[in-house]
Amino acid sequence: MTSRLQNQIESLIFDLFGVIVAFDDGLVYDRIAQRCPNPTEAALHLFNLVSDPSLICGRKSLQQLHTQLVVEVELSASLEEFEALWISSYSEPMPGIRELLRQLARQCKLVLLSNIDPYYWQTVQASIPELDSFHAKVLSFEQGVAKPNTQAFENAIAASGVAVGRCYFVDDKSENIKAAAAIGLAGHAFTSCRALKAKLRQAGLHLQ
């Protein structure tokens, strides 16, 4: 794969969570659970809530989610309080990623491909100003489709304006890498900035 990519990367398509930002979504579940009569049971019920397909694909509002949780886990927080709990940060920049993005932005088009809701997106945007240098942002709540759906990858490739053979995808989940590969989009399973830099150097990019 490396030889095929040599000197051919014109666009890098980046996942957000687990690649650009390290995160612990358990923090938001714990904050919400503390506003319920049985926090332990509530936390279990809330597991993976930030990845709710209806929410990240823009079909469910935070107000609707609040109403749902009032019924399901007896959430006592008001809508305003719940919104504050939801958008409070549970992520931070991955070590080394900000400088890496600055270097990459000078050499190729950067495209963000993220499964994210419109509410927490505002928090992430504010914390990673380097995202402003991205050529395009393909966000599930705007597209109405999320990875690993093939359409999500096709949308990102189209947004790059670059042929699929000259795009390269970076994600921390193997199922997304495999789904992208099925439509000809080569990729790298992210473990660290150091490993990603080594891979991109082999592909012909100049990185310090």
From TrEMBL:
InterPro entries: HAD-like_sf, HAD-SF_hydro_IA, HAD_sf, PGP-like_dom2. It comes from the Bacteria. Keywords: Hydrolase. One of its GO terms (molecular function) is hydrolase activity. PANTHER family: ALPHA-D-GLUCOSE 1-PHOSPHATE PHOSPHATASE (PTHR43611), FLAVIN MONONUCLEOTIDE HYDROLASE 1, CHLOROPLATIC (PTHR43611:SF3). This is HAD-IA family hydrolase.
